[in-house]
């Protein structure tokens, strides 16, 4: 698929982790999980200034990592990244491992993230299937508007068959960029797509999937409540429960969120005060 690679070389964004260290790629992949690039960029720069190596993050308190995670959401990612840094230091002499099996053993690194790190940090040819790549494949080769919730074996086989020979990870980067910038979930720029004349979805008239995914509402959600508690604890070193209770109107939802944050090891209670976990 030379047209995709050529398009990528001419149109790719200048993203800092693309010219960073393997550790910089690891940090970016944790942050980019369910979070758009524009929100990640300032946080990534800040983290790399503070902790440019796994050893730097491993030696920092967890509370610092949770505080610097800011409003990226899903703060368990910060905790798992902190734990991964400690394992990299302890088991791999502070060097990010290259092997997929070794990467999969790190907290917070599943099939996709391990493949992405291997491809983008080490230039290996890997089967990388993020939502942007899957949407591109689903539209162009399957003629459907959106992918299923998770890839199945036939989708994996198709994706694997499309990877060019002697690939150095560029294919994953190129298809991800094409999906993010052109084959967007809403308002795709089909007339600018290098695969325009090969796209089955376009050929059959852009049919919509029968089942539309329901979007999870943020306003008033458990996630928003958890985020409000975490933000309050980022702003002050310790907060009383009476102070925390003022930030959320629903007592039952607040108590549920507080208990889940304690269970996740993201916050701690000492006496009558709460703080970020150390």
Describe this protein's structure.
By secondary structure, this protein is mainly alpha-helical. The chain has three domains: 2-122, Hypothetical protein, domain 2 (Endonuclease III, domain 1, Orthogonal Bundle), CATH 1.10.340.30; 131-169 and 180-203, no CATH class; 222-276, Orthogonal Bundle (Arc Repressor Mutant, subunit A). The chain is 55% helix and 4% strand. It has a three-stranded antiparallel beta sheet. Helix 2 (22-32) packs antiparallel against helix 8 and helix 9 packs across helix 11 (170-181).
CATH homologous superfamily of the largest domain, by name?
Hypothetical protein, domain 2
Return Rg in Å: 21 Å
Name the CATH architecture of the largest domain: Orthogonal Bundle
Strand order of the largest sheet: 1-3-2
Largest β-sheet summary: 3 strands, antiparallel
Distance between the termini: 49 Å
Count of helical stretches? 15
Percent strand equals: under 5%
pLDDT below 50 for ≥5 consecutive residues: which ranges? Answer: none
What fraction, in percent, of the residue positions are helical? Answer: 40-55%
- How many strand segments? 3
Listing every helix as H and every strand as E from the N terminus to the C terminus, the arrangement reads HHHHHHHHHHHHHEHHEE
Mean pLDDT: 93
Number of domains: 3
Backbone structural class: mainly alpha
> In CATH terms, what is the fold-level topology of the largest domain?
Endonuclease III, domain 1
């Amino acid at each position: 698929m030379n047209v995709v690679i050529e398009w990528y070389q001419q149109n790719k964004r200048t993203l800092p982790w693309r010219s960073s260290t393997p550790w910089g790629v690891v940090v970016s992949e944790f942050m980019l999980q369910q979070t758009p690039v524009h929100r990640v960029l300032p946080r990534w720069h800040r983290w790399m200034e503070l902790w440019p190596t796994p050893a730097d993050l491993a030696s920092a308190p967890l509370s610092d990592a949770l505080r610097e995670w800011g409003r990226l959401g899903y703060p368990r990612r910060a905790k798992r990244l902190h734990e991964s840094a400690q394992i990299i230091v302890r088991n791999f002499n502070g060097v990010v491992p290259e092997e997929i099996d070794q990467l999969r053993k790190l907290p917070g690194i599943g099939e996709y993230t391990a493949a992405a790190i291997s491809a983008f940090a080490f230039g290996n040819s890997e089967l990388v299937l993020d939502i942007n790549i899957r949407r591109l494949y689903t539209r162009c080769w399957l003629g459907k508007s959106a992918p299923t919730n998770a890839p199945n074996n036939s989708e994996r086989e198709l994706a694997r068959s499309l990877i060019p020979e002697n690939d150095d990870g560029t294919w994953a980067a190129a298809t991800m960029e094409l999906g993010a910038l052109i084959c967007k979930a809403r308002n795709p720029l089909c007339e600018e797509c290098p695969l325009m004349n090969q796209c089955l979805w376009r050929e059959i008239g852009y049919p919509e999937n029968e089942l539309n995914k329901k979007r999870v509402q943020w306003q008033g959600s458990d996630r928003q409540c958890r985020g409000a508690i975490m933000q309050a604890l980022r702003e002050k070193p310790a907060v009383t429960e009476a102070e925390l209770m003022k930030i959320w109107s629903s007592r039952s939802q607040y108590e549920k969120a507080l208990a889940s944050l304690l269970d996740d090891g993201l916050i701690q209670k000492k006496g009558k005060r709460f703080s970020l976990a150390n």
